[in-house]
Write a structure and sequence with these properties.
Layout: H1 3-23, H2 26-69
Amino acid sequence: MEEPEMQLKGKKDKFTESVYVLANEPSVALYRLQEHVRRSLPELAQHKADMQRWEEQSQGAIYTVEYACR
């Protein structure tokens, strides 16, 4: 390779490495995790509330069936 091509390749490699390091920076990872939690949490909280309600209803039905079988 000629000298200008070598310099260009070196600059390109350094730029690529810098972008890679920046993209994998721990603070960026924490930001992405925070985004995910903010998007997912309301839906998960709703599912939890639904499951608790269904558990209460099923426990009531089980109690009724057990009482009727006595």
